[in-house]
Design brief:
This protein is of the alpha+beta class. It folds into 2 domains: about 5-130, Creatinase/prolidase N-terminal domain (Creatine Amidinohydrolase, Chain A, domain 1, 3-Layer(aba) Sandwich), CATH 3.40.350; about 135-360, Creatinase/methionine aminopeptidase superfamily (Creatine Amidinohydrolase), CATH 3.90.230. It is built from 10 helices and 20 strands. Strand 3 (about 50-55), helix 3 and strand 4 form a beta-alpha-beta unit. The longest helix is centred in the middle third of the chain and has 26 residues, at about 135-160. It starts with a helix and ends with a strand.
C-alpha cells in the first residue's frame, strides 16, 4: 500500500519552502493521492501541525473507511465557511491554494470567508510529487497495461473481420472489462484509412477496408491508475508508402526512447523523435507532443514536448508516441509507456507487437 504520510510530508516540505502556513487542495485527483479517498467531492487542508479532510454527508462512511492521516470533517451547507472556520482556528496567516483548479467564483468565496488570511496560488506542488511513482503505483500501472493487452487482441480480431470502427471499439471495451478493467482511461480510438489523420478522432460507422491502415489507441484504469498505448495495423498487404511512413514513425519512437534517462530534459526526448520525422520530410504532419506522464490521470507530468521545462527523473512513467498524420491519406502512431530507471528506462507496454503488423 502507498505511504500517505510520506506523500503528505513531502508536500509539507515544499509549502514550507514556499513560505506558506498551509495548502488548500481542491484537485480531486490530488485529494485521492494524498488521502486515499476515491469519491468525487472533497477538499484537504494541510498544515505543519494538523491536516483536515472535508466532504459532504454522502461520503461520510466512505471517508471514515478510506481516509488516512487526516481529521475528517463533514460540511452540511457552505463548504468554504466550514473550511474557513478551521483555517481561522489554526491561525493560518498565509494559505496556498491550487490556482489551476480553484475557479474564480470559489476563490472569491474563500477570500470573503478569510478576510485576515493571505491567499497565495501555488499550482503544481502535488503534481510535481505525483510525477515520480512509488512501487505501489508502478505495480498498479503494470496491472492496467496487462489488462489492456486483451483489448489489442480483440482489436486484431475485429479488424480481421472488417467490422466498423465502432464495432471494433466495442469489442475492445468488452474484452478489457471481462479481463478486469475498472473503466477506460479515455474513449477508445479506432480510426481507419483517411480517418487515421485525426490524432484524437472518434470511431465511426466506417467499415474497415482491405489495405487500410488503422490506428488503435486504448487505455484502462485499475484502482484509479491508467494505461495508454497505441498501435497501427494494416489490413491486407501494405503499400510501399505505408511501409515507409510506418518505419519513419517507428524509428522516431525508438530514437526518443534511447534518449530517456534520469537528468535529461524532456524537450531533448521530444527533439529526438521530432527532428528525425522532420529530416524524413514529414515534419509538418507531426503536430503534438511526443509524450505525457500517466498515473492517476491519463495526462499528467512530465510533459514531453518542445517547450517542456521538465527534467526526466528516475521513477517517472510517461508515454512516447510520435505520429504522422496526412490529410487525405491517413496516419500512423506508435505509443509505448516507459518507466525511468537508474540506467535508462524500461518499456512497460511490451504485450503488443510494434513491428509492422499486417492482418490478413
Amino acid at each position: 500500500m502507498p505511504d500517505m504520510f510520506e506523500r503528505v510530508g513531502a508536500v509539507l516540505d515544499e509549502i514550507k519552502r514556499k513560505r506558506t502556513d498551509g495548502l488548500f487542495v481542491t484537485d480531486i485527483t490530488n485529494v485521492r493521492y494524498l488521502s486515499g479517498f476515491t469519491g468525487s467531492s472533497a477538499y484537504l487542508l494541510i498544515t505543519g501541525h494538523r491536516s483536515w479532510f472535508f466532504t459532504d454527508p454522502r461520503y461520510e462512511l466512505q471517508a471514515t473507511d478510506e481516509v488516512k492521516g487526516f481529521e475528517v470533517k463533514i460540511y452540511t451547507r457552505a463548504a468554504f465557511n466550514t473550511i474557513a472556520s478551521v483555517v481561522k482556528r489554526a491561525k493560518i496567516k498565509t494559505l496556498a491554494f491550487e490556482g489551476k483548479t480553484l475557479n474564480y467564483d470559489s476563490y472569491e468565496k474563500l477570500k470573503k470567508a478569510l478576510p485576515g488570511t493571505r491567499l497565495k496560488s501555488l499550482s503544481g506542488i502535488v503534481e510535481k510529487r505525483r510525477a515520480v511513482k512509488d512501487d505501489f503505483e508502478i505495480g498498479q500501472i503494470r496491472r492496467a497495461i496487462e489488462v489492456a493487452n486483451a483489448g489489442f487482441a480483440a482489436a486484431r480480431k475485429g479488424l480481421a473481420s472488417l467490422k466498423t470502427e465502432k464495432e471494433v471499439a466495442l469489442k475492445i471495451e468488452a474484452a478489457v472489462k471481462r479481463k478486469g478493467a475498472d473503466a477506460l482511461s479515455f474513449e477508445t480510438i479506432v480510426l481507419s484509412g483517411e480517418r487515421g489523420a485525426l490524432p484524437h478522432g472518434k470511431p465511426s460507422e466506417e467499415k474497415i477496408k482491405m489495405g487500410a491502415l488503422t490506428v488503435v489507441d486504448l487505455g484502462v484504469t485499475i484502482d484509479g491508475y491508467c494505461s495508454d498505448e497505441t498501435r497501427t495495423y494494416c489490413v491486407g498487404s501494405p503499400t510501399m508508402k505505408q511501409k515507409r511512413v510506418y518505419k519513419v514513425v517507428k524509428d522516431a519512437h525508438d530514437r526518443a526512447i534511447e534518449k530517456v534517462r534520469s537528468g535529461v530534459k524532456a524537450s531533448v526526448v521530444d527533439g529526438a523523435a521530432r527532428s528525425y520525422i522532420r529530416r524524413a520530410g514529414y515534419g509538418k504532419y507531426f503536430g503534438h507532443g511526443t509524450g505525457h506522464g500517466v498515473g492517476l490521470d491519463i495526462h499528467e507530468d512530465p510533459v514531453i514536448s518542445p517547450m517542456s521545462k521538465d527534467i526526466i527523473t528516475e521513477g517517472m512513467v510517461f508515454t512516447i508516441e510520435p505520429g504522422i498524420y496526412m490529410p487525405g491519406w491517413g496516419g500512423v502512431r506508435i505509443e509505448d509507456m516507459v518507466l525511468v530507471t537508474s540506467c535508462g528506462c524500461e518499456i512497460l507496454t511490451r504485450g503488443s507487437n510494434k513491428e509492422f503488423y499486417c492482418i490478413e
